[in-house]
């Protein structure tokens, strides 16, 4: 039988609970990492504050009295308070909470531990409040990262949670490397040096997809656009040498390493083998071959005139020609008619008024 109503509801409730739990777990992990970051900032700011206050309360004189006053200030509660006050930006909730929660630890360190444990980050963040781990270690118990704590991820990646009480210690490898411990090379890279703890991956020759060495003879497989020659080396495929060009009709083909490109023919060509008016396969209309170069045809100087109407003139242009009316004539309804001179225009107007007084304006 299929699930009934109440069973389904229970199932949904359970999956909700699981989701909430999952979120809490990932949240907590992120919190552990950020808690260490906050602690690191606090101890960094502590050293800054320590340096800043070193110059304070020093009048510039060097009397014995001033010396004494200074050495007293150096280890004083007042100086500690001045440093602690400057640890957090007032807007940083996390920082202020951490400092407030652990204020007594700063006092303990300042008065009792400073000499024996001069590294505040180590004493406070790692050993006392336990939000950070030593370099190369991660997680609640500060376990060593993959590889070793000296060389996390064998020096070829970053260990998740490194130096914090969070993370899972997994490696995210640098470019060129892969695998759980970042000893393997990605496609396009090969192991130049490799043993159980050390790996150096180097990029293959540009003709290889995969390889075992640096030259084009060390390819396992050629990259697209390259092919194996008789010596089993990967060499460029000349896409332009094939009988049918991979380019469009009004383009010519240019071979490149591993590929090719198509470029537009000169406008005087109808098809071409290269750039310029002398590389045409045929001339475009309006052009003719003159000693191997396509040149404009002057339609106007041909024996048979092309502009046939009365008072028309021919004007040549690149690839064609136009017919225009001669000067003093203008085109009206496809004919070239004489333009009226200003006085002629007045005259005809005057005659019009006399002949048809009721004509429209
Ligand atoms: C504390 O450190 C943080 C990060 O390094 C910085 O942005 C902030 O300005 C510092 N606060 C003070 C008061 O120096
Ligand atoms: C691995 O190779 C590195 C670099 O060549 C070398 O320093 C290291 O001693 C080698 N380790 C082993 C276990 O052979």
Automatic annotation (TrEMBL):
<feature type="domain" description="EGF-like">
    <location>
        <begin position="296"/>
        <end position="337"/>
    </location>
</feature>
<protein>
    <submittedName>
        <fullName>Cysteine-rich with EGF-like domains 2</fullName>
    </submittedName>
</protein>
<dbReference type="InterPro" id="IPR009030">
    <property type="entry name" value="Growth_fac_rcpt_cys_sf"/>
</dbReference>
<dbReference type="InterPro" id="IPR018097">
    <property type="entry name" value="EGF_Ca-bd_CS"/>
</dbReference>
<dbReference type="GO" id="GO:0005509">
    <property type="term" value="F:calcium ion binding"/>
</dbReference>
<dbReference type="InterPro" id="IPR002049">
    <property type="entry name" value="LE_dom"/>
</dbReference>
<dbReference type="Pfam" id="PF11938">
    <property type="entry name" value="DUF3456"/>
</dbReference>
<keyword id="KW-0106">Calcium</keyword>
<keyword id="KW-0256">Endoplasmic reticulum</keyword>
<feature type="disulfide bond">
    <location>
        <begin position="173"/>
        <end position="182"/>
    </location>
</feature>
<feature type="region of interest" description="Disordered">
    <location>
        <begin position="336"/>
        <end position="361"/>
    </location>
</feature>
<keyword id="KW-0732">Signal</keyword>
<dbReference type="Pfam" id="PF07645">
    <property type="entry name" value="EGF_CA"/>
</dbReference>
<keyword id="KW-0325">Glycoprotein</keyword>
<feature type="compositionally biased region" description="Low complexity">
    <location>
        <begin position="351"/>
        <end position="361"/>
    </location>
</feature>
<dbReference type="InterPro" id="IPR001881">
    <property type="entry name" value="EGF-like_Ca-bd_dom"/>
</dbReference>
<keyword id="KW-0245">EGF-like domain</keyword>
<keyword id="KW-0677">Repeat</keyword>
<dbReference type="InterPro" id="IPR049883">
    <property type="entry name" value="NOTCH1_EGF-like"/>
</dbReference>
<feature type="domain" description="EGF-like">
    <location>
        <begin position="141"/>
        <end position="183"/>
    </location>
</feature>
<feature type="signal peptide">
    <location>
        <begin position="1"/>
        <end position="28"/>
    </location>
</feature>
<dbReference type="InterPro" id="IPR000152">
    <property type="entry name" value="EGF-type_Asp/Asn_hydroxyl_site"/>
</dbReference>
<comment type="similarity">
    <text>Belongs to the CRELD family.</text>
</comment>
<keyword id="KW-1015">Disulfide bond</keyword>
<dbReference type="GO" id="GO:0005783">
    <property type="term" value="C:endoplasmic reticulum"/>
</dbReference>
<dbReference type="InterPro" id="IPR021852">
    <property type="entry name" value="DUF3456"/>
</dbReference>
<dbReference type="InterPro" id="IPR006212">
    <property type="entry name" value="Furin_repeat"/>
</dbReference>
<dbReference type="InterPro" id="IPR000742">
    <property type="entry name" value="EGF"/>
</dbReference>
